[in-house]
Design goal:
Blueprint (H helix, E strand, L loop, with lengths): L7 H10 L65 E3 L2 E3 L9 E9 L20 E3 L7 E7 L5 E8 L7 E6 H7 L6 E8 L3 E2 L13 E9 L2 H14 L8 E5 L2 E9 L2 H15 L4 E5 L1
Parallel strand pairs: 3-7, 4-6, 9-11
Antiparallel strand pairs: 1-2, 3-8, 4-7, 5-6, 5-8, 10-12, 10-13, 11-12
Organism: Thiobacillus denitrificans (strain ATCC 25259 / T1)
EC number: 4.2.2.-
Family: Belongs to the RlpA family.
Length: 286
C-alpha cells in the first residue's frame, strides 16, 4: 500500500479549501507551515526532512553567520491575530513579555526558501530566523540546545510548527549552528529576548502597563537583561508574568511588577537584597 506524504502547508491548504467560509485569521499573509514529515530514512545523512534538505551548494562557513540582533520594532499589523491551522486555534501574544519554554525544535529549509512567511517577508533558510506558533511577530528569542549547550539568537517572523510535540522551527542555518540539522530535531530551551519601548518611538506598540515596579538593573544587551530577569524569577519563585525588560535610551531595564502597593514592592525589594545581594529602585509609572 502506498502512503501519501503531505507537508503541513499542503494539509493546511486542503483544510481551508474544505471550509465553507474563510476564518478572519486567513486575512493575514499566508502562513508557511514547515513540513511535518518524519526524517527521510533513505537519506545517507539520516536527518533531512523529505526533499527539504540543503541546496547542492550552500553558502560557505554557515557557522560565521551572525545571530539576529534584538531591536525595537512595531508588531506586525496582521500576523498576531488569532488563527487556525490544521484544526487547532492559536492566539499569539498581544504584547512582548518574558517567555521561557523547553521542548523539541525542528527546522525547515529549501522547500520554503523564498516563499512568503507570516510576516510577509520571504523566507531565507540562510538567515537567523524562526517560526513559532504564538510569540509576537516580529520578536527575538534565544534558543539553546539542551544536548550541547550551544545557543543562537533568532528573529521570529513566521508561524509554525503546527505539531503538538514541537515548540519552534528554526531556519536551516540556525539549526546548523545548534548542531542538529542531520538529526532533524533536538530538545531546546526558548527564551524571549524582547524589549518593550518606553520611548513611544515604535508606532503600533501598546503603552506599557501602569503601576508600581522594582528596577533591578540596566544593560546595553537585551540577552543580559533577560538573564537577570530569569534569575530573579527563579530565585524569588515569581510568576513568569511578574517582570519585564524595558528599552529606554538604548538601555534594557530589568523591572519586576506591577505590584498592587508600595508595601508589596518593598517586600520584594528586601528579598532581592537578601537573596541576591542586589539593590532595587521603586519606579512608579502613572
Amino acid at each position: 500500500m502506498k502512503i501519501l506524504l503531505m507537508s503541513g502547508a499542503a494539509a493546511l491548504a486542503l483544510t481551508l479549501a474544505g471550509c465553507g467560509t474563510t476564518p478572519p485569521a486567513r486575512q493575514t499573509p499566508p502562513v508557511q507551515t514547515p513540513t511535518e514529515q518524519a526524517p527521510n530514512k533513505t537519506s545517507k545523512a539520516g536527518g533531512y526532512y523529505l526533499d527539504d534538505g540543503p541546496e547542492a551548494n550552500p553558502p560557505p562557513d554557515l557557522d560565521a553567520v551572525p545571530d539576529a540582533v534584538p531591536r525595537a520594532e512595531p508588531l506586525h499589523r496582521f500576523a498576531n491575530r488569532t488563527y487556525t491551522a490544521l484544526g487547532a486555534t492559536y492566539t499569539p501574544m498581544a504584547q512582548r513579555r518574558a517567555y521561557r519554554e523547553e521542548g523539541v525544535a525542528s527546522w525547515y529549509g529549501r522547500r520554503f526558501h523564498g516563499k512568503k512567511t507570516a510576516s510577509g517577508e520571504p523566507y531565507d533558510m540562510y538567515a537567523m530566523t524562526a517560526a513559532h506558533p504564538t510569540l509576537p511577530i516580529p520578536s527575538y528569542a534565544r534558543v539553546t540546545s539542551l544536548a550541547n549547550g550551544k545557543s543562537v539568537v533568532v528573529r521570529i517572523n513566521d508561524r509554525g510548527p503546527f505539531h503538538s510535540k514541537r515548540v519552534i522551527d528554526l531556519s536551516y542555518t540556525a539549526a546548523h549552528k545548534l548542531g542538529y540539522v542531520k538529526q532533524g530535531s533536538a530538545r531546546v530551551r526558548v527564551e524571549s529576548l524582547d524589549t518593550e519601548s518606553e520611548e513611544g518611538d515604535a508606532p503600533g506598540e501598546a503603552l506599557l502597563a501602569q503601576g508600581i515596579y522594582l528596577q533591578v538593573g540596566a544593560f546595553s544587551r537585551a540577552d543580559n537583561a533577560l538573564a537577570l530577569l530569569n534569575r530573579l524569577q527563579r530565585e524569588l519563585q515569581l510568576d513568569a508574568g511578574l517582570g519585564r525588560v524595558v528599552l529606554k535610551r538604548s538601555l534594557h531595564h530589568v523591572q519586576l511588577g506591577p505590584y498592587p502597593s508600595d508595601a508589596a514592592a518593598k517586600a520584594d525589594r528586601a528579598r532581592v537584597r537578601e537573596r541576591l545581594d542586589l539593590s532595587a529602585v521603586l519606579v512608579r509609572r502613572e
